[in-house]
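Quick one, probably user error.
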C-alpha cells in the first residue's frame, strides 16, 4: 500500500485534442498508479460526467476541470479551472460559444492551407476527431495523414505555430471574463504553464484575482519550478501541477506518470473550497 497519493492535475481526452477517450486515459492512469486526476479539456467539460463514472469503477478520482484560452497584452494565456460545476449553465453557454468559434477558425486555417496549394479539407480534419473543440493539433494530425508533413512538429513549425503561414488566432478573451466564469461555476482558477510569460503578464493575472499557478509542468525546468513556487508563496496563491498529457502523435507518452501535484497543495485547494 503506497502512502502518498499520486495526483496529476492536467490531462486531455478526445473531448478536446487528447488522443485517448476518458476510458482509455483512465485505464492508463490506473496502470501508472495515479490516484487523482483532473481532466482539463480545452473549452469542454463534456467528457467529465463519463470520466467521473469510469474513475469510480477503476478507482481513480476525477476532479472536473477545464482549460480556457485568454489574451493578455496580445499573448495567449491558458487558464485552468478546477472543481467546477459542470452543469453550470453560464459555463456551458460560454464553452459552447468557444467551441463554435474553434470550428470557424479551423475552417479559416484549412482555407489558408489550401491557398498554399495544400490538399486538405475540413472533412479530413473531421476524420481525425469527433471532438467539437477543434484545435490545431487535430489539423496537424490530418496533415500527417494526408502526407503533407512527416510529423506533428513539422506541421506546427512550417504551418500552424503562432505567426506561421496558416496560423489563425482564436477570438480574444480577457482573463477577467474567464476568471468570472470559473469562479461563478464554483471553481478555482490557475495560470497554466506560465513558463513563456513575461512577469508583467503574471502580475496582471495575479491582480485580476487568479487563485493559483501551475508550477509543475513538463515545459518548466527546475529553475522555473522554484521561481513560480516563490511567486505562489509571496502572493499567498495555490499551487498546481500535472503532465498536460495528450497522447498519440504529440509523442508525450513519457510525460505520463512523471509530473505530480504534491498532495499538500491538493489539500490546500480543498481547504480553500471549504470542502
Ligand atoms: P489551439 O488551442 O488550437 O490553439 O492549439 C493549441 C495546442 O497546440 C497547444 O495546447 C499545444 O498542444 C499545441 N501547440 C501549440 N503550439 C505548438 C507548437 N509550436 N508545437 C507543437 N505543438 C503546439
Ligand atoms: Zn491541448
Ligand atoms: Fe495549455
Ligand atoms: Fe493543456
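Nope, works fine. Designed sequence:
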Amino acid at each position: 500500500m503506497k502512502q502518498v497519493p499520486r495526483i496529476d492535475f492536467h490531462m486531455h481526452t478526445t473531448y478536446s485534442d487528447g488522443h485517448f477517450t476518458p476510458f482509455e486515459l483512465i485505464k492508463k492512469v490506473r496502470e501508472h498508479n495515479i490516484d487523482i486526476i483532473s481532466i482539463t479539456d480545452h473549452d469542454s467539460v463534456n467528457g467529465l460526467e463519463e470520466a467521473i463514472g469510469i474513475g469510480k469503477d477503476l478507482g481513480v478520482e476525477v476532479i472536473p476541470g477545464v482549460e480556457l484560452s485568454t489574451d493578455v497584452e496580445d499573448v495567449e494565456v491558458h487558464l485552468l479551472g478546477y472543481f467546477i460545476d459542470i452543469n453550470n449553465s453560464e459555463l456551458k453557454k460560454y464553452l459552447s460559444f468557444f467551441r463554435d468559434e474553434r470550428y470557424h477558425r479551423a475552417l479559416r486555417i484549412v482555407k489558408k492551407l489550401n491557398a498554399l496549394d495544400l490538399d486538405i479539407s475540413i472533412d479530413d480534419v473531421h476524420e481525425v476527431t469527433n471532438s467539437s473543440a477543434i484545435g490545431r493539433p487535430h489539423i496537424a494530425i490530418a496533415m500527417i495523414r494526408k502526407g503533407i508533413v512527416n510529423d506533428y512538429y513539422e506541421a506546427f513549425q512550417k504551418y500552424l505555430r503562432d505567426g506561421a503561414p496558416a496560423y489563425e488566432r482564436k477570438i480574444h478573451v480577457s482573463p477577467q471574463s474567464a476568471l468570472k466564469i470559473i469562479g461563478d461555476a464554483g471553481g478555482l482558477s490557475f495560470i497554466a504553464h506560465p513558463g513563456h510569460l513575461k512577469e508583467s503578464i503574471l502580475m496582471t493575472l495575479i491582480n485580476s484575482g487568479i487563485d493559483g499557478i501551475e508550477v509543475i509542468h513538463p515545459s518548466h525546468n527546475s529553475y522555473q519550478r522554484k521561481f513560480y513556487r516563490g511567486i505562489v508563496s509571496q502572493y499567498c496563491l495555490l499551487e498546481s501541477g500535472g503532465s498536460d498529457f495528450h497522447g498519440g502523435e504529440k509523442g508525450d507518452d513519457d510525460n505520463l506518470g512523471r509530473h505530480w501535484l504534491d498532495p499538500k497543495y491538493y489539500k490546500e485547494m480543498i481547504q480553500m473550497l471549504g470542502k
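Strands lie at 7-11, 36-39, 61-72, 75-82, 188-191, 212-216, 238-241.
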